[in-house]
Amino acid sequence: MERDIFSAVLVEEKLPDMSCPEFLQQARKKSANAILIVSSVEPSLSAARQAFHNGADDYLDLPITPGLVQESIANIHAQRHQNRSMSDFLALWAHEARGPLTAIQTSAQVLAGGYLGPLNPEQTGELGIILRNCGYLADMIDCHLDWAQLEWQQQTGENRAVDWIHQVIEPVLQRPEYRDNPKSMTFRLTGIDIPRVAGNTRQLQIVVNNLVNNAIKYGRDHTEIRLDLSRQGDRVILGIHNTGCTLSRHDIETRLFQPFVRLKSKGGEGVKGTGLGLYLCHRIIRQHGGNLTAHSGPGDEVEFRISLPQAPLTLPADESFNDQF
Amino acid sequence: MKKVLLIDDDKDLCQSLSAVLRTQGYEVAVAHSATEGLKTTLALKPDAIVLDVLMETDTAGFEFIYQIRDERDSSRYLSVRNTPIVLLTAINQITNFRFSLNEKQSYLPSISGMLTKPLQIESLLDRLKQMTA
């Protein structure tokens, strides 16, 4: 795999000089798309689970026949194609859904803003419900687009040296809905001379966008959201701090980054979400060889901390985003 | 009174935006396709144009910009060549699936800005105020 590109690799579980999980991890790093099939003389459920966890596409018992391998490869191709079609469909749906949502939201904003005449408090309240739910739908649509983009880029994306501040954080903070957020929350960015990280700019924007969106959604009115950049050895750390709804240690350790999980946080009652955002963030950061952790401290402060490896000096910079913002 | 031309195939959205722009003292005209938009631009000579991207084709809005900004002396749109344009698009800068689009994009002639749908009305009003100042 060092010397050539293979579309499929069949590997025996017991290797003389390396453990199977280690081989799978390295093989996956070398080739994100290669089909990896593990064969085993002594198959077990736990070994199979471990193989899948480390990137295997299939786990077969010996004896292996050419027919069995062909069938396995065909199944994997079909499954990947199905996932691709699903993500294409989701992207299309999400994009189409923005149209009617925009019309509803704009119409409600026109009324709520008092542009067509004053409203009584009950009418303002009802419009608030419409606008909040439009925001929820918009989040859901963004999550589906993020998801589809992630699936797509897994097959096409390449790592580049990414500038955290100018290519990731600032474009997110400049979004009008964040800059002029209805809770009047402010942003403070600290940290200078931060080296570039190795990654995919769009995917890192998805992560910061989700975390900032949550910090506003679950934050207290008129408080500050702090984004601290720092270095720890050869890693770059971004901490996003807000004050508001807290998280229990149990939830952080067991459920926070699971898909479709919505936590009942203190103060977060009635806040709607898709339960997908943090799962996507966690997945993206793991794929970048980093860590995403959450800390809920005293004084209702919550921190989400991203740790990513610094980009090697030989890695080319992501030029495509230089003139973008 | 400053004249604003809204070009978007979503009639509901145009109705809401027209209503709010009139309350802010603008004279508003509406077109529901890029082709209709070009004709109205020539006839009305608006002070600013609010333009959707995906209309009769996926790139109708971009084609509109190319036509208006055509720098050849023979262009039909010489008299409106410098009309400020703000682009409205559902293609989000952050979640822009398979698209790379922004207001400084080198392949696009100069525009005054880009706003993403769903739209913040205040952002549009601020932008129009700058464009028609």
* Poorly predicted ranges of chain A: none
Q: Could you give the order of the helices and strands of chain B? A: EHEHEHEEH
Q: Helix count of chain A? A: 9
pLDDT averaged over residues of chain A = 84
Structural class of chain B: alpha/beta
> Helix- and strand-based class of chain A?
alpha/beta
Oligomeric nature of the chains? heterodimer
Low-confidence stretches of chain B: 93-106
Give, in order, the helices and strands of chain A.
EHEHEHHEHHEEHEEHHEE
Number of strand elements of chain B: 5
Number of helices of chain B: 4
Q: For the largest beta sheet of chain A, what order do the strands appear in spatially?
A: 5-7-8-10-9
Radius of gyration of chain B: 14 Å
Largest interface: A-B, 37 and 30 residues
Distance between the termini of chain B: 12 Å
For the biggest sheet of chain A, the summary is: 5 strands, mixed
Global morphology of chain A: globular
Helical content class of chain B: 25-40%
Features:
heterodimer, A: about 325 residues, alpha/beta, five-stranded mixed sheet, globular, B: about 130 residues, five-stranded parallel sheet, 4 helices
Report on this structure.
The complex is a heterodimer of chains A (325) and B (133). Chain A has helices spanning 20-30, 45-53, 66-112, 121-156, 164-173, 176-179, 201-217, 249-254, 277-287, and strands at 8-12, 35-40, 58-61, 160-162, 186-190, 197-199, 224-232, 235-243, 291-296, 301-309. With 325 residues, chain A is α/β, with parallel strands linked by helices. Chain A has a five-stranded mixed sheet with strand order 5-7-8-10-9. Chain A has a three-stranded parallel sheet with strand order 1-2-3, with helices on both faces. Chain A has a two-stranded antiparallel sheet with strand order 4-6. In chain A, helix 3 packs antiparallel against helix 4 and helix 7 (201-217) packs antiparallel against helix 9. Chain A is globular. By secondary structure, chain B is of the alpha/beta class. Chain B contains four helices and five strands. In chain B, strands 2-1-3-4-5 form a five-stranded parallel sheet, sandwiched between helices. In chain B, helix 2 (34-44) runs parallel beside helix 3 (60-68). The longest helix of chain B is centred in the first third of the chain and has 13 residues, at 11-23. Chain B is globular and about 40 Å long. At the A-B interface, helix 3, helix 4 and helix 7 of A face helix 1 and helix 4 of B.
